[in-house]
């Protein structure tokens, strides 16, 4: 009996110890989970230059194009299918990504003026991250004011590696924390190595980080890495969707026919009401070179993801991938960007963050580049400053419907280059189904497209009576959006700043 009592007591003790151990283990796991979830996320923002929204392996427009690392972000995160820039050229778009404001607000609405926003008035989101305990870095293109030395370092970044203007593909002059020198090698690889070096060796591992890797590629002259220069040789380029390479411009503005023909805006040559029906030739070499440049970008992203995984930081890093503007690949006879066609204003946007975003999330709502800064700050637990005009996409990324989300967007363009290469000043209002483009020309027509039935924007409906009510709705929407976003095409503090910096006196 004594022995049984001792045995029973021992069993009870062992059982209680086991229960206590399991309970402590659960509490420890819950505590670790809470710590992990509440930990501020890191940010890796990869921005490409001039990447068409459908130049991705996952889009299947180019069957031979493989971008497995870019595609991985969509597979393991969110694909924001309707993502647009507020102005489709480098400097204005990059400033909007940083400040969360429209070009007419931050003031960088030109490429050929080369100025910065007023950083005191419109601080980049990185400055707010710094105040929130983040360590920040910018590696790559900035393409705003052409400052030299330490002045080239923009506010909001603890580490700086960049270059003036467009930079060079091979052996580029660079600026590292104010020191100027010439780096040897291919620009995409150089930027990748600098980004990885900062992640592994130069930052404080005890702080959350925000890293911008903003590429020069795939901007013209589209020079691929030597290892890719013979890639896709013999591959056939598919024609653009919706037969946009057969554009005749029938019923469209005259200025577009002038642009296609290359006429100078001021000449008096007669312009036909429509162009001959034909298949406009696609620039095979130019388009292939652009796609070859993109392969090095994909390799770069793969290296960054692998580095983050090795460091144990991948699952706690918000990876954002986008382009500063779209690009014509032969659609509507055009090259470059700038215009209010979908190919110009729409860009890829992929975001991976497993703690928040489910795999293969598709977001259909219209989002803008000014939404990225508020989204990053929201994820970091930092309040959005009052000057930011964009909205946080966090609820959309969670897969939730936001009944207050915008149902129309405003696009703008200000002539920054010579006619007719660039096109005129214009705004566009885009809803889910329609787009209205106003070029402010007294002797020419505007544009109205039914995006649902005419996604290629081939048929201008501006003079079709059945669409008069749609046009009126969109013009009313334009008035509303211009008021909401304080649209002011005459804001010229940036020009005054240029004149002041050059020591030029203004005439009164």
CATH-wise, what's the superfamily?
Answer: Alkaline Phosphatase, subunit A
CATH fold-level name: Alkaline Phosphatase, subunit A
- Tell the overall outline: globular
State the name of the first-level CATH class. Alpha Beta
In short:
With 508 residues, the chain is of the alpha/beta class. It contains 13 helices and 16 strands.
Describe this structure in words.
- The protein is of the alpha/beta class.
- It has helices at residues 2-38, 68-76, 90-99, 103-106, 125-131, 187-202, 254-261, 284-311, 342-345, 372-379, 394-397, 468-484, 493-501, and strands at 42-48, 78-80, 83-84, 135-140, 159-162, 173-176, 179-182, 209-214, 317-323, 349-352, 361-363, 367-368, 408-413, 426-431, 434-438, 447-450.
- The strands form three sheets. The protein has a ten-stranded mixed β-sheet, with helices on both faces.
- Strand 6 and strand 7 (179-182) form a beta hairpin.
- Residues 1-37 and 502-508 have low confidence and may be disordered.
């Amino acid at each position: 009996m004594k022995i049984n009592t001792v045995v029973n007591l021992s069993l009870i003790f062992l059982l209680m110890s086991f229960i206590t151990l399991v309970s402590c283990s659960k509490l420890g796991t819950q505590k670790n989970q809470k710590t992990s979830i509440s930990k501020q996320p890191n940010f890796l923002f990869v921005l490409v230059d001039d990447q068409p929204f459908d130049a991705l392996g996952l889009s299947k427009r180019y069957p031979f194009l493989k971008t497995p690392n870019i595609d991985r972000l969509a597979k393991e995160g969110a694909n924001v299918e309707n993502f647009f820039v507020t102005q489709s050229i480098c400097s204005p778009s990059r400033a909007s990504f940083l400040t969360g404001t429209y070009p007419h607000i931050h003031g960088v609405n030109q490429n050929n003026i080369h100025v910065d926003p007023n950083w005191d008035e419109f601080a980049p989101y990185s400055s707010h991250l710094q105040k929130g305990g983040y360590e920040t870095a910018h590696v790559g293109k900035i393409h705003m004011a052409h400052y030299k030395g330490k002045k080239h370092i923009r506010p909001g970044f603890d580490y700086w590696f960049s270059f003036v203007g467009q930079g060079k593909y091979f052996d580029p002059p660079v600026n590292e924390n104010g020191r100027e020198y010439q780096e040897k090698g291919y620009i995409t690889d150089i930027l990748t190595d600098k980004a990885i070096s900062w992640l592994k060796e130069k930052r404080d591992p005890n702080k959350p980080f925000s890293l911008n890797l903003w590429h020069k590629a795939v901007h013209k002259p589209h020079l691929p890495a030597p290892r890719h220069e013979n890639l896709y040789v013999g591959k056939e380029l598919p024609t653009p969707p919706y037969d946009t390479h057969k554009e005749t411009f029938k019923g469209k503005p005259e200025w577009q026919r002038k642009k296609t023909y290359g006429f100078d805006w001021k000449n008096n040559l007669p312009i036909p009401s429509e162009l001959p029906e034909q298949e406009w030739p696609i620039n095979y070499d130019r388009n292939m070179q652009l796609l070859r440049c993109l392969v090095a970008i994909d390799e770069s992203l793969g290296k960054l993801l692998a580095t983050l995984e090795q460091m144990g930081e991948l699952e706690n890093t918000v990876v954002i991938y986008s382009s500063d503007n779209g690009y014509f690949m032969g659609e509507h006879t055009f090259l470059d960007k700038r215009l209010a066609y979908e190919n110009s204003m729409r860009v890829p946007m992929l975001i991976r963050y497993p703690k928040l975003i489910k795999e293969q999330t598709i977001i259909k709502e219209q989002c803008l580049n000014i939404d990225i800064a508020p989204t990053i700050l929201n994820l970091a637990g930092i309040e959005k400053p009052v000057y930011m005009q964009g909205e946080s996409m966090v609820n959309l990324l969670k897969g939730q419907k936001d009944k207050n989300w915008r149902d129309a967007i405003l696009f703008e363009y200000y002539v920054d280059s010579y006619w007719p290469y660039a096109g005129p000043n214009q705004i566009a209002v885009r809803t889910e189904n329609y787009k209205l483009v106003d070029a402010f020309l007294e002797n020419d027509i505007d544009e109205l497209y039914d995006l649902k039935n005419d996604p290629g924007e081939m048929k201008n409906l501006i003079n079709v009576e059945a669409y008069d009510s749609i046009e009126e709705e969109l013009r009313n929407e334009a008035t509303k959006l211009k008021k909401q976003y304080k649209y002011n095409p005459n804001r010229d503090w940036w020009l005054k700043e240029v004149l002041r910096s050059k020591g030029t006196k203004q005439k009164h």
